[in-house]
Structure formats: C-alpha cells, structure tokens
Design a protein that fits this description.
746 residues; seven-stranded mixed β-sheet; five-stranded antiparallel β-sheet; 24 strands
Length: 746
C-alpha cells in the first residue's frame, strides 16, 4: 500500500503549481537569495535554477515539489504589492521620525567608473560602451527620512531603491554598515545611511562623533564566520564635515607622503584628551579610532576621508565626487556584497580573507569550565611564517647575506607572474581585416577557486617526487617541454606550431633554458601536456587547504549580482551577452563603480599577499611592516597567478588545436586574435550555440570571456612600425586603440 501512496505523492508533486518565471526570480531576490544558494538547497546545478527563472526549462520531480514549497513560503513573505500613489512608496514612519515633505530634498543617482594598481596581478580590462537608456528603477528619487528634533535615536527606513541593500536584520546594526556625514546649507550635520535613511548628528567634535557612532547610530555589520568579529562602523567625512570638525579639506604634499596629519594636530589632541587611540597608521585617509577592548566588547570606529584620496580613482572612479546619498549607496552596496571597506580595495581584499577564516577560535571548556583561544583550523593562524628563500622578494631578510649587487636568476628565484607576450603577425594574419581582443572575467578570482594552498611553513625536500596535489615551489628543468607536440586528451596528441605560442612557463612566453623555480600548478601543467618532470628540490607545504574558496565565492557573488543589476545576467546566450555588455556602465554609473571596486578587490587582495616595503626608512635586508602579518604569503600569490596563467594557456592550446588560430598578443587576462569580423563570435568556434569544450566561452561568470575591443590589422601594423617594435604588445591598447608611453596599470 505504501508504494501506492508514494506513487500518488509523486504524481501530485509532478504537477506542483509554480508562479510564472519572472515571479520566481522576484521572490528569490526579495529574500536576498542567490541562484547558487537555491541550487545548493535543491541539489541541482546553478544553470538549472537559472533556466527555471528564465522560463527556458521547468523543474521536474522530486525538485519541482521542493521548489514549489520554497516559492510558496516566499510568496507569503513577499506578496505582490498593489499599485498605489507614489506618496505611499515609503513605509509608515515611527513617532520619532518625520518624512521630509520638501521636494528639494529628493535624491537622484548619477556617476563614474574605475580600474587597479601595483604589486598585484595585472589589471582587469573593461569593455567599451555606447549607452542605452537607464532603467527607471535605477533613477527613482530616494526620499530622506530624518529623526525629529525630539529624538536623536535612529529608527525606521523606507524601502531601498534598486541596488541599495535593505540593511541588516541584526538590531545592533539596523541602520546599515556605514554613514556619509555631511553638513547641509542650514549648517545641520547629517549622516546619510544605506537605504535612503538620513540621521541628525548632534556631535560637535570628532571624539563626540565617535561616541555618537558607537552609542546611538546603530551602524556596523555582523561577523562573517563563527569565531570572527563584527565589522566596525564606517563614517565617511565629506569636505563640509571636515571643515565643521576642524580637519583639513586636503593634505599637504608632506602629509600626503606621510599618509597622515601631524601628531600635534588639534583634533588628535582632542582624541587623546578623550582617551581615544589611533593605530600606528595615525590619522590618515583611513583612520581607525579605538579604545582597547574589554572582554568581548569592541570600541572602534573607522573614518574614510575621500578628499584625502581614500577612494583611489583607479579603483573607485568618481565616487569621491558623488553627493552624500549617492556615495552612501555605492559604499553600502559594496559593503553588503563584499564587506565594509577597511582601507584600499587591496587592504579590503586581504581583510576579507581573514574575516572568512579568523585565525583563532574558542576551545572546548577545560576541566574548570573555561575556554581558551586556540588555532582555527583552515586559517593562516595568528603568527607569520617565513617563506622559502626562493619565494622571498629582493631585499628580504632571508637574502641579507647575498652579495650587494647579486641578481638572482630563475634557479634562485620563483618568478610566477601574469603574461606579457606578443609576436609579429604572420602573412596570413595580415590578410585578415581585424584584431579582436577577448578578456577573461575575474581571471585571478577564477584562478583562486578550488586551489589548494599552503597554510603553514614550508618543508625543504631534496630530489622529491612531484605531487600535483602538494602546494609548494619546485626547482625543475622544463626546457624539454615541446609545444609542437602536446597531449590534449587521455591518449591523444596534437601537432602545433610552437613558434606561434607563448611558453606556459614564463611570463614573457619564452621557452625556459634550464632549471627554474615554479609553483605547483605550473609543474602540473607540464605533466598534463605529456612530459616527465624530475624536480631537483622543493619547498612543500604539508599543511594545506582550499583557503581561498570562500573568498572567491563571496567576490564572485558580489560581481555577478551587481552585473545582473546592470542588465548582464549569467545565463545569456552569446549574442545576447555581447549586446548586454555594450554600454552596461551607463545604465547605472554608480553600480558600475561597485563592479570596478569588486574587481580591484580581487587583484589587490592577491597582490597584497606579497606587499613590498613602503618607504619608512627601510633598507635591503631589514624586515618591513607587512612581514609581521600571517597574510604575508608570497607562495599563495604565486600559486594563484601560476594557476591563472596556466588556465589561460590551456584555453589557447585547445583553441589552436581545434581552429588552427594562434594568439598575436597576451597581456595578463587579455588575448588578441586576428579575424575577418569585429566580434569574438567571428573566431570563437561555437556550434549550435555550444562553445568548444575547454576553450573560450562568452559569458559573465569568472573564467569566461567578454569582448575587450576591436581594431584594424592596419592599425596594429602601423603602431608597431611607428614605435619600431615588431613585438609591441597590442593587447595593451586593443580596448580603444590609443597608444601612449604611459603605463596605464593594465
């Protein structure tokens, strides 16, 4: 009988009623769920859920019943709102708040864009853009809500416009992670929070502003991992706020070089009198003001000062020039999807790693019932570890005994960097009309995904047997690897024109000439290509793990969610994807700034793992400040860059085997091919909408590619002739065709 009941249940489940596809997506996003979260809960692929929401496919049992159950519950929480006059757009306000009736206070949303910087993987290139009309939701006025004069406590919010996080549910942080403090025309100090909320600020000085932030503002962000710490509230000071609180609107050249205002400044004296402390960085563009923690209670506020260049234009575009409400929106979206900024995008990228893997946790109770701090498994711990000598950058204390002017070669120094390779065009390529550049999305994030890296100190091993699962640095001769004959399958070999390919083993694409140090992914690729490897020695890390997985997922989700807000979804067909990417920044320039900052966070975080000395009187052979961090890990940086470069080379080889086409130039994550047409679809081998397995695929997901730019073949030849450089890297200029002698960071 039970079998009959099961059959009946299955029959009912097969016809479980579902709302229309658009409503399915609305319900998911209303609850703040990502496609990946839904897919994980239902144990299906991400693309499956995406197909359900687009209407391309329909769920089948047993997932259909579970999916219907999820949507039914969400529909109860988020019913379709009836149409109503605009005046009812904001929810009811508590008795201590009044919605401003002044139409002059309505806010609109304009703005900017950005890129990245030094000691990091090369910068992510972004595509050119004409401009369709902006969606109405992105430009809807944001009403302000102010506390009444009878109360200064924060309270209710209005519904947030598109792209603005609705705020944390944690009552301690009900007003969001941050506020932009400004002074209006009437001299009133206001704090612009996320979600359109505006608070009156009673503070008359920086010390009292810090007190108000901690006691009344209800700003901050919950911790990301169990043993971690809540994010400190962030206060952004506009120019008018700086003037009100006695701080300079800009820094002098001397202060800018020092990165802080002088210790004797009157505001610092005010903080000292109020028993507040500053970190060793002092009072600079990203100042941290705190009192030592008592127990689990933290008392710390971070200040961000845009006019002191806290928001670097390479990463944040014109964010520093935005009005307060718009700036709060940009930083608020970034904070909700990545984390509350802790400094530059590079610093924040590194801090995100630690936030997801706190170094310590509370132990189990001892015999007296007390808990103690202990190492948190899977983290880098609280103490720094020495790198291997081959992993140490020039000037490191491990190298202090080297002769003063000694230059280390490949057999002494690990040199895993991004590609910068180019070659002259062949006669056949010169007969084609165009050069088309494609760019890998979030390439270094994709390289970090699933990568096993060392967590502890290295172990030196002589004449080791290579183990592709063991992270480390290997001294091995790969000069025998011949790209004219490589393995492309289990038992399949392919013949290639090695002269038209970059070597996968060096950043400049040159074939190695003898033993050199390589990270594990590089050596593993030599084995994959069908060649034997015999390392001479190695520094391996037996304590290891997929430390960067959560970091990758957080940044991937932030990138995909923001691009989706800009009209570029992850499940678009190739032609639709190219059309959606055309002019995406103009649809909402503020969210375009967030995209740029997210990409900069990836590159900056990886680069920060091998931060170099920053002045401070440093001399070669002496330690510098960054070496005291557990997150100073040049081996992890090298492994990520190695895997990213190898991932790209693998796609280049697959493409060459299948099409006979070879790249003309490669710069970091950008590859240029000659083609008869102007689009990537004119040379990428799609068949029935399917890309080449293992090759390049158009799409917005990390690791997939987008169109970087197109120029004429005659342009490339003219540029190389003008600069008398047959191997000038055209990938550097393919985006807009402008060639300068200035390093643009890309």
């Amino acid at each position: 009988m039970s079998e009959l009941f099961d059959a009946v249940d299955a029959l009912v489940a097969s016809r479980a009623k579902l709302p229309p596809p658009a409503e399915r997506k609305r319900l998911r996003t209303a609850h703040g769920l990502t496609i990946d979260e839904v897919a994980g809960a239902l144990k299906v692929r991400r693309a499956t859920v995406s197909g359900w929401e687009s209407g391309k496919t329909e769920p089948r049992p047993p997932e259909r019943d579970a999916y219907a159950r999820l949507l039914d519950q969400l529909a109860e929480l988020y019913p379709v709102a009836p149409s109503a006059p605009e005046e009812t757009d904001a929810p009811a306000v508590s008795a201590t708040f009044t919605a401003s009736p002044d139409p002059a206070e309505a806010q609109t949303l304009p703005a900017g864009a950005a890129v990245e910087t030094a000691d990091m993987p090369a910068a992510e290139n972004t595509p050119p853009s004409p401009a369709p009309a902006a969606p109405a939701a992105a430009t809807r006025p944001a009403r302000t809500i102010r506390p009444s004069s009878t109360s200064r406590r924060p309270g209710a919010k209005k519904a947030a416009p598109a792209g603005i996080p609705a705020g944390d549910t944690d009552p301690r942080f009900e007003n969001g992670p941050l506020a932009v403090v400004d002074v209006d025309a009437d001299g009133q100090v206001l704090a612009y929070c996320t979600g359109g909320l505006v608070l009156d600020v009673p503070a008359k000085s920086i010390p009292s502003l810090v007190d108000w932030t901690l006691r009344e503002a209800k700003l901050g962000q919950p911790k990301m991992a169990g043993p971690g710490k809540d994010a400190d509230p962030l206060i952004v000071l506009t120019r008018s706020a700086l003037e009100r609180y006695g701080l300079p609107v800009g820094l002098t050249d001397e202060e800018r070089l020092a990165g802080r205002i002088p210790e004797g400044h009157k505001v610092i004296k005010q903080l000292v009198r109020a028993e507040w402390k500053l970190t060793k960085r002092g009072f600079g563009p990203w100042a941290r003001i705190y009192r030592p923690a008592t127990g689990s209670e933290r008392a710390c506020v971070q200040l961000c000062i845009p006019s002191w260049n806290a928001l670097d234009t390479r990463h944040w575009g014109e964010a520093a020039q935005l009005p307060p409400a718009e700036l709060a929106r940009v930083l608020g979206v970034y904070a909700s999807r990545v984390m509350t900024p802790r400094g530059s995008t590079a610093v924040t990228g590194l801090e995100l790693m630690t936030a997801l893997h706190p170094p310590t946790r509370a132990s189990e109770p001892d015999t007296d019932g007390k808990r103690h701090s202990e190492h948190n498994p899977g983290s880098l711990g609280k103490d720094p570890v020495d790198c291997a000598p081959c992993e140490a950058p020039d000037g490191h204390p491990l190298l202090k005994d080297l002769p003063r002017f000694h230059v280390r070669g490949p057999a002494e120094k690990l040199f895993e960097e991004a590609y910068d390779w180019a070659r002259p065009m062949t006669d056949a390529e010169c007969t084609l009309r165009h050069l088309v550049g494609i760019d890998v999305n979030m390439a270094f994030a994709a390289g970090a995904n699933g990568l096993v890296v060392g967590l502890g100190a290295p172990t030196h091993v002589k004449a080791p047997v290579f183990d592709a699962k063991l992270p480390g640095s290997w001294l091995v001769d790969l000069s025998h690897v011949d790209l004219s004959r490589v393995k492309v399958g289990k038992d399949r070999w392919a013949e290639l024109d090695a002269g038209l390919l970059p070597s996968p083993f060096t950043p400049k694409g040159e074939r190695p000439e003898g033993p050199a140090w390589y990270a594990t992914p590089t050596v593993a690729y030599a084995v994959e290509l069908g060649y034997e490897v015999r390392p001479l020695e190695a520094y391996v890390r037996y304590e290891n793990g997929r430390y960067l997985d959560g970091w990758y997922q957080r940044l991937r989700d932030a990138y995909l969610a923001t691009m989706a807000d800009l009209g570029v979804d992850a499940d678009l067909e190739p032609a639709d994807f190219l059309a959606a990417m055309d002019g995406y920044k103009e649809r909402d320039p503020e969210l375009a700034i967030v995209v740029s900052a997210v990409k900069a966070t990836v590159k900056g975080g990886i680069g920060k793992l091998r931060e170099r000395p920053r002045g401070e009187g440093w001399r070669p052979g002496e330690p510098w400040r960054a070496l005291s961090r557990p997150t100073w890990r040049p081996d992890i940086r090298a492994a990520v860059i190695s895997r990213t470069r190898i991932n790209l080379h693998r796609k280049i080889v697959k493409h060459a085997v299948f099409t006979g086409q070879y790249p003309i130039a490669v710069l970091s994550d950008c590859v240029v091919y000659a083609a008869d047409g102007t689009s990537p679809l004119d040379f990428l081998p799609y068949r029935d909408g399917k890309p080449l397995p293992g090759g390049f695929k158009l799409g917005i997901n990390p690791g997939l590619v987008k169109h970087e730019g197109t120029q004429e073949v005659l342009w490339g030849e003219e540029v190389r002739e003008r600069f008398n450089a047959p191997e000038l890297n055209l990938a550097r200029y393919i985006k807009d065709g402008t060639v300068t002698d200035v390093d643009n960071g890309e």
